[in-house]
Backbone:
């Protein structure tokens, strides 16, 4: 059985995107991007919503103009090696996804538990909307919060309203541009999964 993790890139005031839906303010510097490359070592499966999936399709094909750095090529290589699960009723109805992605129309906690149970390593659930139910249920084992030195004043919260979590700090790291990684663990996540019916 795998474990479930959640990575969020967020402003100091707790938002993954601002009130206009923009997140360009969170673009990583070189050392932050290298962290994202390295963290994929532990991940075997990525669970993401439709919008994030469509955004991440960028990494499926190398550009022809040679514009990618070595780290971008390495991120793309590791990304392409992940199992992808896309939570989307829209894509499920249209049958529209790449050959590598499994589409789940309804990402219930039971369906998510099956994905984690069948995985050989860390399952990362990405995107605050997709991860909200799992966070509220307390089934996420690891939280990697990448905090960007910006205050955006509102928008999409990285941690959903109603979540109550008791976490222990596992790692902290400061990057050159003032971005900070806070990695927390939940001791109770494995026992928080609802009983199978």
Residues:
């Amino acid at each position: 059985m795998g474990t479930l993790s959640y990575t969020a890139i967020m402003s100091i005031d707790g938002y993954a995107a601002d009130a206009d839906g923009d997140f360009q303010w969170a673009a990583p510097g070189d050392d932050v991007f290298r962290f994202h490359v390295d963290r994929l070592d532990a991940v075997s499966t990525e669970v993401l919503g439709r919008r994030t999936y469509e955004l991440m399709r960028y990494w499926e094909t190398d550009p022809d103009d040679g514009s990618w750095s070595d780290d971008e090529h390495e991120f793309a290589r590791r990304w392409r090696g992940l199992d992808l699960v896309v939570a989307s009723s829209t894509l499920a109805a249209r049958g529209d996804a790449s050959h590598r992605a499994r589409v789940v129309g309804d990402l219930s906690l039971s369906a998510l538990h099956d994905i984690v149970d069948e995985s050989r390593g860390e399952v990362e659930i990405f995107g605050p909307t997709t991860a909200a139910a799992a966070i509220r249920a307390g089934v996420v084992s690891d939280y990697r919060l990448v905090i960007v030195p910006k205050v955006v004043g509102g928008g999409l919260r990285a941690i959903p309203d109603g979540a109550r979590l008791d976490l222990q700090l596992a790692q902290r790291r400061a990057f050159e541009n003032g971005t900070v990684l806070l990695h927390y663990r939940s001791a109770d996540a494995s026992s928080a999964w609802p009983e199978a019916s």
